[in-house]
Structure prediction request, 158 residues.
Amino acid sequence: MSNQNPPTQENSPLNPVARHNARRYALQAMYQWQLADTSITDIENEFLHYRIDKKMDLPYFKELIYGVPKHQQEIDKEMQPFVDRAMHDIDPVELAVLRLAIYELIKRPDVPYRVIINEALELTKKFGSIDGHKFVNGVLDRVAKKNRATEIGAGRQR
Prediction:
């Protein structure tokens, strides 16, 4: 692929497909970050110049890839009570999905928790292990109940 500008959607209204693509690319970037000793800036540059081939929400992609590492300790602390194994024993794809989704659950209250969980499950089914989505769903459901209790309660009253 040439060094052309990637397709993005920087100044248009929220587009669910562009947001989904931002999460998809962020998952791939976080997977790479977890496994390689590469800086987020280098990973961002690689994605922007060589990997992104679909329209996406660029500001959201950047928020995710910089926000997860910045808040990794807080994210992992939120996750730990709900996992039955050490962090290094979690499948790397599932760990990246969990970190992205938990970041959104705790740092993006404007995004409905159901959207976050559904997106995480879709990504896990596409990129994770065969039954990985069950594990991810269980963890995210409990993290959401802890951090989005008001939102979950309001949804039940409708």
